[in-house]
Design brief:
The chain has one domain (3-108). Helix content is 77%, strand content 0%. The protein is built from four helices and no strands. The longest helix is centred in the first third of the chain and has 26 residues, at 24-49. The protein is globular, with a radius of gyration of 15 Å.
């Protein structure tokens, strides 16, 4: 199994695992951020060792679905993907999309507060 598929497998486990907790939204954000931090670290190791890399699209997807705080931490901690364009622009856009969706859900969802 390649590294990219493994990342999505872990994401599926995080999704299922968060559903069965008393606070599924909070657990989702905790798990997806830890997972995103880990995949930034794995991708940095893969870059240094010239291994197969995690695609930028996967890194952006993990940030868009709520893992952007973990992604920001991983970028700074591992000094990874901090200067590369257009990734940086796409990442900022993905953060804005996530925040916009969360604000919209807050106002329309009875579970999240609306």
């Amino acid at each position: 199994m390649n590294l990219n598929r493994f990342c999505y497998l872990l994401l599926a486990f995080a999704t299922v695992g968060s559903v069965f907790t008393p606070y599924p939204v909070l657990m989702w954000f905790l798990l997806v951020n830890v997972l995103t931090l880990l995949i930034y670290g794995l991708d940095k190791i893969a870059a240094r060792k010239a291994w197969y890399r995690i695609p930028e699209a996967t890194l952006l997807i993990f940030g868009t679905i709520g893992g952007w705080p973990g992604a920001l931490t991983g970028q700074q901690l591992f000094r990874h993907k901090t200067q590369k364009q257009p990734f940086k622009t796409y990442f900022i856009a993905s953060v804005m999309v996530n925040i916009g969706v969360m604000v919209a859900l807050y106002f329309v969802s009875p579970v999240l507060g609306g």
